[in-house]
User: Which sequence fits this backbone?
């Protein structure tokens, strides 16, 4: 499958415990409930959604960005409940060869291997289906959990961007990357 073919219809991905799928309007309350927790957004660089109506318009922006081949936002849902407990995003594509990866997870599901399982499915999709050469992540130096996750996924630390724009903040930012040849 090529980069362009991957955007014909939303690419749902199934793992052992999870379904990574397109966010639907019914998911707005679940998303709002976990994403409005300051601990979840502390390293995100953006404000939490103000209300469920704001979330619904965010989902429309996600859908439109997918149609424009700008990003793929997977809702992470438990197979048991189908409830949205987090998201993973591949976006900021550069000529179909490079992308940024971002993720967030409900605090109730931290330290259960959920994000490792999610990235373990999305990273291969990026390299194999989208044909990416490089996937990169930007993380605040004090976000130890995210750094540990990236290192478990074999991302390499490349350096520190001083007072980089991270959402609405200017903060030091570490950049990590994984190349297709390192993944294979």
Assistant:
């Amino acid at each position: 499958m090529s980069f362009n073919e991957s955007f014909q219809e939303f690419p749902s991905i199934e793992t052992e415990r999870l379904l990574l799928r397109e966010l639907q309007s019914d998911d707005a309350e679940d998303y709002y409930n976990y994403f409005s927790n300051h601990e979840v957004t502390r390293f995100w660089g953006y404000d939490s959604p103000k209300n469920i109506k704001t979330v619904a318009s965010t989902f429309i922006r996600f859908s439109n960005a997918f149609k424009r081949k700008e990003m793929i936002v997977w809702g992470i849902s438990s197979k048991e409940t189908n409830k949205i407990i987090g998201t993973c995003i591949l976006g900021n594509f550069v000529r179909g060869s490079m992308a940024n990866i971002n993720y967030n997870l409900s605090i109730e599901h931290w330290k259960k291997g959920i994000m490792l399982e999610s990235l373990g499915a999305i990273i291969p999709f990026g390299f194999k289906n989208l044909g990416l050469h490089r996937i990169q992540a930007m993380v605040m130096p004090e976000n130890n959990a995210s750094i540990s996750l990236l290192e478990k996924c074999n991302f390499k630390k490349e350096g520190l961007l001083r007072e980089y724009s991270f959402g609405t903040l200017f903060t030091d930012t570490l950049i990590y990357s994984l190349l297709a040849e390192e993944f294979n």
Observations:
- The mean pLDDT is 90.
- The domain at 5-183 is CATH 3.40.630.30 (Aminopeptidase).
- The chain has six helices and eight strands.
